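Q: Got a minute? One more chain.
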Amino acid sequence: MTVLYEDNHIIIVNKAPGEIVQGDKTGDTPLSETVKQWIKETHAKPGNVFLGVAHRLDRPVGGVVVFAKTSKALARLNEMFRLGNVHKTYWAITRGKPEKPEDTLTHWITTVERNNKSYASATPKDGAKESRLAYRTIAESDRYRLLEVNLMTGRKHQIRVQLSAIGCPVKGDLKYGDKRSNPDGSISLMARRIRFIHPVSGIEIDVTAPVPDDTLWHVLEQNAAQ
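A: Always. Here it is, folded:
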């Protein structure tokens, strides 16, 4: 865990792939507990540390996560996420090449809890939620593309299932159609950047996470910068 930003009301960290943000049935130590312990030790806080979870990332996804350090910040962050006032940018490495270098995708997504998987339809279906994202290709190598993705809705596994639906599964994402797993069990999708107006101070917060320490990520990042 790396702290990217901290003040009295919020803390933003870089989540490693494989970590869970909040406790679940696995019993594994969640990132929220790691952050609470870090705050307690770093700031020598006695007693219990308050930490509110405002949003989550899928377990195999890394990148920017915001936590609230006060109940006031948590209530306001929850409302900001609900209204879409928090702007998140994702980077995804895909094995396939999209037909268009940039596009807006609209699907109707159904989630089946029994197998923890989402399914995308090109047309409306009963119980399915309309799901939209915009992507653009920002770099490529011989076999892979680096897409920058901005979500317009927030559905379970949305980026993974929508990119898979256009023949561009995220590298390493066996659940949504890639052929091979990544050696560390991650998938090549990260929450790269987050931007919002601070829920208490009103200043603009704009935080970018570093790409994973992996050769392909570094090559594509360099290509994107050119």
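A: DSSP finds four helices and eleven strands in the chain.
Q: Perfect, thanks.
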